Amino acid sequence: MPAAAWATIVIAALIIAVAGIGLLRVILHLRHVSQTLAALDGGVGAIVASTSTVPSRLTSVNANLKPVRDFCAGV
Fold first, then answer.
1. Read out DSSP for 5-67?
2. Using CA atoms, how far apart are residues 67 and 65, in angstroms rounded to an integer?
3. Which backbone phi and psi does 13 adopt, to 5 degrees?
4. Distance between CA 38 and CA 41 in Å, rounded?
5. What is the pLDDT of residue 5?
6. Where are the bilayer-spanning segments (predicted)?
């Protein structure tokens, strides 16, 4: 096999190896981003749970104040 063929095989192998390393780095970065987003999503879920809207709690408050409203309407 001529030297030009060996040089071509070596150069092709180097290019493929560099591309593979680059793709591996991309995979590792994407995994890190995915883990960070999962942690962020958990934090956002905790904030949503602690800052619930008023209408979900308003029905129980109105039910507790019904006797007061009835008394005021009677006066």
1. HHHHHHHHHHHHHHHHHHHHHHHHHHHHHHHHHHHHHHHHHHHHHHT--SHHHHHHHHHHHHH
2. 6
3. -65, -40
4. 5
5. 94
6. 6-28
Question: What is the domain partition of the chain in residue ranges?
Answer: 1-74
Paired tokens of 22: 């680059």
> Does the pLDDT value for residue 71 go beyond 80?
yes
Coil, strand or helix: which one is 2?
coil
**pLDDT, tens only, 41-58:** 878 888 887 877 666 666
**Which pLDDT score, from 0 to 100, does residue 41 have?**
83
Pair of tokens at residue 47: 């904030």
Q: What pLDDT is stored for residue 49 in this prediction?
A: 77
